[in-house]
Design brief:
The chain is α+β, with helices and mostly antiparallel strands. It has 15 helices and 19 strands. The two termini are 39 Å apart.
Length: 503
């Protein structure tokens, strides 16, 4: 894949419309009734509830103890241990044909292990592909109030790295499988479950795995519990995710670094030159000044704009994000929800100098821009637009290179599909309030690969336990125990809803 990354910032959109029927794209189209789904799974949900502490929470706490950091070197042994532990959890939940495999990357090196398991209990029935990842981002212990790799439960929450992203989804889905099997001895649908260990480093080998094991990802629907709700307690179903494009901009000035005392004042400083270029890409409101950047973006309706502004004011957004006093919302006149889910955005994700030191003028400096794209945008056109704009801002005659370094495309699905309407109705029952559709500002690199392998008509359900206050990828990451419970309960109903029994 050319483009890769992950962080997720979710944006709410509109109310889910009540549906009249469900149609699983590749199998016989069962209609559905949420009341029947709930009634048919009452014993399963009771078992899930009784085992929630001993299985769901216990499994999550065990997973938190593993430092499976895929984006940094030195954690290879821990990653292997984590994959082995996930395979043990698969077996304890009742999955069969459990396999731990690696593939060779483009560089010839082994990937981190993938864990796969299945239950094919419904011959002729629909097959669901479940996806999770066991790897996490790095955590700096000194910035945490609790040990990041030791689960701490307090105030109705579980703290630890990966609680939200993505080990809560893994524990919840395995719990749903286990509860079904304990009550009925089989699942109402066929299940294939794939867990990878490289999502936080952009899933660089995922496409190779799919190519090597195509039969493991063929399905009639895909369930990914790696997202969540923009507002605490309001259920949401993702209808789109932003993509990402990483672009490196490098300024070169000298053949070698110089002494700032001897030569400073007459030599262009590469970091200052680079700062001028970056600043020139934005106006005073931090709106990108890049001609053609929004080419292909489909405007949302005035009704949606009004609903977004009603749902989240700028003041509420500042509070939700933890702005310091006096800091303003930027990006133009649109609402915060529209800007963080329906429009492209550019952030600076890293600045480096070739040589460092208090008395040094480095020979070069570089920065990585992360461009969040939305459905309809072309990564190639975006790159050319950024490169053209940067070249027009070159100061002092410095040398400039602009290079794409990876990313992942944006993704969207039909918000009126019966599968999403069924999911919304299920979530409304679980939460006890009306569900909403949302544009998700984050990125899941694997979605384009899975969609290409299964076909664009295969429904993808993106949900999960993430919500405001979880600090996903940040210090003191945590998950609400109630959100964890709802994720597993929702998964039980989704299994039933997609099955022939869901009629």
């Amino acid at each position: 894949m050319f483009w890769n990354d992950t962080r997720r910032t979710i944006t709410l959109v509109l109310l889910i419309v009540a549906s009249k029927g469900l149609s699983v794209q590749r199998k016989a189209p069962p209609s559905y009734c949420v009341e029947e789904i709930v009634s048919d799974t009452r014993e399963v949900v009771d078992r899930y509830r009784s085992d929630f502490e001993s299985f769901t929470i216990a499994s999550l706490k065990e997973l938190i103890g593993f430092r499976a950091i895929s984006s940094e070197p030195g954690f290879e042994a821990e990653i292997i241990r984590t994959a082995d532990h996930v395979s043990t959890l698969f077996k304890s939940a009742g999955l069969k044909n459990v396999r731990v495999n690696t593939v060779r990357g483009a560089d010839g090196q082994k990937s981190n292990p993938y864990v796969y398991g299945e239950r094919m209990d419904a011959p002729g029935g629909p097959t669901l592909l479940l996806y999770s990842h066991y790897d996490v981002v790095i955590a700096n212990r000194k910035n945490w109030k609790t040990p990041p790799f030791k689960a701490v439960e307090k105030n109705g929450r579980i703290f630890g790295r990966g609680t939200t992203d993505n080990r809560s989804g893994l524990a919840a889905k395995l719990s749903a499988i286990a509860a079904y099997l304990k009550v009925n001895g089989k699942l109402p649908v066929n299940i294939k479950y794939l867990v990878e260990g490289e999502e936080e480093s952009g899933s660089p080998n995922f496409e190779r795995y799919v190519t090597q094991y195509p039969e493991r990802i063929k399905a009639d629907a895909i369930l990914i519990a790696d997202a969540g709700d923009r507002f605490k307690g309001i259920p949401a179903v993702a209808v789109s995710l932003r993509g990402i494009l990483h672009i490196e901009i490098k300024v070169s000035v000298l053949k070698n670094a110089l002494h700032s005392g001897i030569d400073g004042g007459a030599v262009p400083h590469p970091l200052i030159a680079l700062s001028k270029i970056i600043a020139g890409l934005f106006d005073e409101e931090q709106v990108p000044l890049i001609p053609g950047l929004r080419r292909g973006v489909t405007p949302i309706s005035q009704a949606e704009k009004s609903e977004m502004r009603r749902l989240l004011s700028d003041d509420a957004f500042r509070k939700q994000c933890g702005f310091l006093p006096g800091v303003e919302v930027v990006g133009g006149p649109e609402s915060a929800l529209e800007k963080t889910g329906c429009l492209p955005a550019i952030s600076v994700s890293g600045i480096e100098v070739s040589e460092s030191g208090k008395s040094t003028i480095p020979s070069s400096a570089k920065v990585t821009l992360s461009v969040r794209t939305v459905p309809g945008m072309s990564d190639e056109r975006v790159f050319e637009a950024v490169k053209t704009a940067a070249k027009k801002l070159i100061p002092f005659g410095v040398h400039l290179t602009v290079t794409p370094t990876g990313g992942a495309p944006a993704w969207s699905t039909d918000p009126n599909s019966p599968e999403l309407q069924m999911t919304g109705d299920i979530f409304s029952h679980v939460y006890g309030r009306k569900s909403v559709l949302q544009h998700d500002g984050g990125t899941l690199p694997l979605l384009s690969v899975l969609s290409a392998a299964n076909g664009a008509d295969v429904p993808v359900i993106v949900y999960g336990a993430d919500e405001p206050g979880n600090n996903t990828h940040g210090n003191d990451e945590s998950v609400g125990i109630d959100a964890l419970y709802r994720t597993g309960e929702s998964t039980i109903y989704l299994f039933q809803g997609f099955s022939e029994k869901g009629r």
